[in-house]
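Hello, quick one for you while I still have it in my head. A protein chain has come my way and I'm curious about its shape. Can you walk me through what the tokens say about the fold? No rush at all, and the record is pasted right below.
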Amino acid sequence: MSVPVKLGSQLLLVLLLSSFAAAQYKPAEANLKARQWFQDARFGMFIHWGVYSVRARGEWVMENEKISISEYEKFAPQFNPTQFDAAEWVSLAKRAGVNYITITSKHHDGFDMFATKRSRWNIVDATPYAQDPLAALAEECRKQGIKLFFYYSQLDWHHRDYFPLGLTGHAAGRPPGGDWNRYLDYMDAQLTELLTKYGPVGGIWFDGMWDKPDADWQLGRTYNLIHSLQPAALIGSNHHLKPFDGEDFQMFEKDLPGLNTSGFSEKSEVGALPLETCDTINDSWGFNAGDKKFKSTAQLIQYLVRAAGYDANFLLNVGPTSSGTIPHEEVERLEAMGSWLAKNGETIYGTRGGPAKPRPWGAMTQKGNQIYVHILNWSDELLALPDIGSVKSARLFTNNASIDVTSMNGGLVLRIPAAVRDPIDTIVVLQK
């Protein structure tokens, strides 16, 4: 393994030690506790923000519109998010009822949203803003009790050493050639910055490995580096495959675990790690001024419920503008979800999925000896449940009113009068 001296003595030592690490990953006790916290958290806020917000046509604009590096770099002098307010962003997360934030530190365009010493293609050196928003966000998250995760793209349309090219980035205009091992060293050096300069980090959310699935990514080296620097940090990767050794949670893009409605999860197998699904409020991740296809608050709440029924977290995305503000349509929906969770969060936070998988009518979550039946799409008075064992009683979560429950043919039948049904989620508590 070739490690440039310029990476620094700490990184050099960690990488050398990592190269001798055991092949099988054994998570530290702090990591296992973090996994449990992660499962209990259930709701997070995703933030896709970068220089692409200047164009206001999504985070893939460089690739979709075949923009060369020389032309794309002209966006940076226009990126001046003076209205960014870390305290307000984290306060919004609190009002929404989320327990963690995952923000893009670097997306596929290679632009760094933090003060890195490894490249000048970053928000501090290349824009008039000249400040580190991730530092402000990390400090504010600590103040307000929110965990901070960093999204990091392994794919890079800008870096000269991301070579040979993968499935994307062919219009960027990079000269042929490059040193793949040098690129991996660069990536590990940046991850070291993120894990040593911003305090305790909830985890690293990788994306982009799918661009070169057969490349030698040296995942063991990178994963060992992360766990050596912060043992409690959780690693997940959006590679759409079964989790690799060293990963701590499994994610699903725009889909619930085990489903493949989006087409991303064809090769995904649901493993034994904590689960997370991510989705957008409209159809875009990065700010897209022309995308007005906003999901309703009811749709978002019901997706959160179904995710919990599958024993998964819901990471819901916002795409801030180039000025540093979160669109009001997204703010309104997040705040509405927070209001719902303030009343019904007991049935989501700290729960586990089941005892049966979600059905077209809704989902079930459970905590201790209580099962929460979330009825999302059912208009009849009687609802048949699968066999979940005997129950002592059934009541409405909202007001503790008794609900008739009958055992029948190995299952249960609930009687839900029309007068007590909620248009978003009628929650019945079954006491085991």
